[in-house]
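Office hours follow-up: a student asked to see two folded examples consecutively, so here they are.
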Amino acid sequence: MKKTFALLFLAYVSQIFAQDKIQFDKKNIQSEDKWVAFSADSTGSHPYGFIYIDSQAGLTFDWEGTFTIDPSGKFIPKRRETEGQVKYRLQPNNNLVAFIPESKYSELIIPKEPDWLKNYKTDEGSIGRLYKWGFMYNGWNECEKALEYLEKAQKIDPEYKGLCVELAYSYNCLKQYQKAVDVLKIALKKEPLDAYTNKELIYAETKNGNLKEAEDICRKVFKEVSDKTYNAENAFNILQAYYIKKDIKNFNNWFAEANSHIMNNQRFMSLVEQMKIQLKQ
């Protein structure tokens, strides 16, 4: 009986420590409004602080200090000696951080949310902020997170400038191509000759399997859109779709029609030459 109780007690203690153990499994761009710890240095000290988004500077880390973990699992903090706040602008990367469990806030003497954070939340819920946050998350390739903000913005004002295209970027990124097509067609009613909007639509149509529609849009862009920035990419995306389908006839036909645009880009031409070789095998 005593042995059984001891085993149960050990299991209980192990569960408590498992709950408090920090897991380095989050990217910094997944850590908005979170207390986080970075991996320990050679002395066993973990830098820690709060990650938030500054509307002007982007992803920002407010450094609080360091802590070590004693044998019992207790967090022992050492506050930074520098007066005032110490902030670092973060670039999205694959380095992993750990969320600090709320059960450890008292040990680190930190609040659930820093008092100063309210200064960065004054326009929370406004369409401008929702759009900007969606734009930033798309730029960091966190399209699912971006969509959370952008779809909220859409409910407020679906005609907000730039919103349809930003939504389409998220949808394309998440392989929701028909949704991208639908919002891009709405955007093009207002700006039918916008080069970037047409680029996203051509991409979505090719991924959706509507290659003839993509060709028609591309021809219109070649002829009517003054901004030629994306012409090579547009032509290549259609060609690549035919290559993936192993549709040699339409591959050759489209290359004959659009090669003058693709030839302006060395990288695309190199890929096309490889495609040609593989299609002949």
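And the second, which I mentioned at the end of office hours:
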Amino acid sequence: MQKANHSVTEFILLGFQEPPKHSPILFTVFLVMYLLALAGNSTIIFIIRMDTHLHTPMYFFLSILSCVDICLTTCTVPKLLASIFVEKKSISFHGCFLQLHFFTTFGNMTGFMLAIMAVDRYLAISRPLHYAMLMSKAVRTRLVAGSWILVSLHAGTHSVMAARLSYCGSNEIHYYFCDLPPLFKLSCSDTSLNELLLLTEATVFLMSPCLCITISYILIIITICRMPSTEGRYKAFSTCSSHLTAVVLNYGPVLYTYIRPASAYSLEKDLIISVLYSVVNSMLNPFVYSIRNNEFKGAFKRVLSKIISFWNK
């Protein structure tokens, strides 16, 4: 039992309270998903780095997205795996808010990268002659750096404000990582300001990239409809299909979780939804971007043949 935040030294994470006999199954499922996320995203980064045919803006942004996915899952899954078999599933006070900060940072960065990639697709389809200049290396670097600064400031604001709340009664978080909604439920302080900030600022940070994506695809559709040949329309749309799939997978769970008043939160449902956007999406994105991408599959074969040739020397 804790009376105030200055006396709290740790939180107890009670996200997955399965019977002991189910622990090996739970551990295996999360371990497999985590390893697939690491392997898939690392492969994408490696292939893009090694094959010069993929040294384009689109694949540069995809490699950044893969890095973000690796960091996002690493914020939560290793701690979850370590706590499955131990009786006391604790995390230190400072560790909790550090986890909150980085999870919020990388979660928001995912949305910003998807928005940048949508704009990139629009410019590639509608302005092909000026595309290289509009998406130069300097522009790409500024877009990523600017997004990183914004999401870091956003996450820092929320994590600091949440850390300054008083936590009394119980220090048990019915979640598998430190996130804002369950921390608000645990606090005995007035969280109305925190909730208002979360609802307004998170709406801006979530909906601005979403709006950017929507506008980009409206313009893309208009451009595609004006193309004279069916083959050209199909080729243009095929370059966007993977990105659209990733957008749906990301924004569905995230909007459900955060664009609601605190009174509407259900920890049980949100626990499942959080697994989708923090683990499952990171595992699926490499498959989404590679399975139907002939350009990437060609690069994968070229890099693999180089590795085999080097190995056989």
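Two things to take away from it. The beta strands are 10-13, 90-92, 172-173. The two ends are 65 Å apart (CA to CA).
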